[in-house]
Specification:
globular; 4-stranded parallel β-sheet; 4-stranded antiparallel β-sheet; 227 residues; single chain; DNA primase DNAg catalytic core, N-terminal domain; alpha/beta; 8 strands; 18% strand; Dna Topoisomerase Vi A Subunit, Chain: A, domain 2
Length: 227
């Protein structure tokens, strides 16, 4: 019974990330600039936004909120949610919780301003996004980014997953290889610097080497699934 209770009780770090994601979800509806950004990226379905747990980090108020819930500065610092100066790690970013087996393992922040576009907390990015929902499909679409995934889900392609980048971890490759008859359609960005194209080619070769049928989706130059 004690072992079962231990398995069912989320780790403190997971609870902290859950509290943070809930706070950011609340903030999304208080900041019109975040909603406008989602609309500009083609994401307009409120039900999908809620399902994915998308939020917004305005910056400057997370530490105070979490301190009121009893979390210490050291806990926030260790999690990567604040800097050593106490500043929020995420500022003016749309937030996507990355879940694995029902628990948040990381948070991804996409800048809506001039800052570097992508940010994850300094921890593992986990497995393929929403793999528990996608793994039953025999044909899977693999994209780079979470906005790519979101708009494809919105369009009805629920067999889409995301690696958050072009480089798959060994755990993510293992997930794709669980079903030997699976077909994977790689729909990475068509970048000016050829990063997406090179990543697609290298990944297709890796998948084929472990018996997975891989197909590269040829998008128009300069585009990604979101655009």
């Amino acid at each position: 019974m004690a072992l079962l209770q231990q398995e069912l009780t989320p780790a403190p770090a997971s609870r902290l990330l859950e509290e943070t994601a809930t706070f950011y979800q609340f903030q999304l509806h208080r900041h019109p600039e975040a909603i406008r950004y989602l609309e500009q990226r083609g994401l307009r379905d409120p039900a999908l936004i809620e399902e994915m747990g998308i939020g917004y980090a305005p910056g400057g108020n997370l530490r105070r909120h979490l301190a009121a819930l009893g979390y210490s500065f050291d806990q926030l610092l260790e999690s990567g949610l604040v800097s050593s100066q106490g500043r929020d790690a995420f500022c003016r970013r749309v937030i996507f919780p990355c879940r694995q087996r029902g628990q948040i393992v990381n948070l991804y922040g996409r800048s809506i301003g001039a800052a570097f576009p992508h940010r994850l907390l300094p921890r593992s990015k986990g497995g393929l996004f929403a793999w528990e929902l996608v793994s039953s499909f025999s044909t899977v679409i693999l994209v780079e980014g979470l906005f790519d995934l979101a708009v494809l889900w919105q369009a009805g392609f629920r067999n889409t997953t995301c690696a958050i980048g072009t480089q798959l971890t060994p755990a993510q490759l293992s997930q794709l290889a669980e079903e030997p008859r699976r077909s994977v359609y790689i729909a990475f960005d068509q970048d000016d610097n050829q990063a997406g194209q090179q990543g697609s080619h290298q990944l297709a070769l890796r998948l084929q080497s472990i018996g997975i049928r891989a197909h590269i989706v040829q998008l128009p130059h300069g585009h990604d699934p979101n655009s």
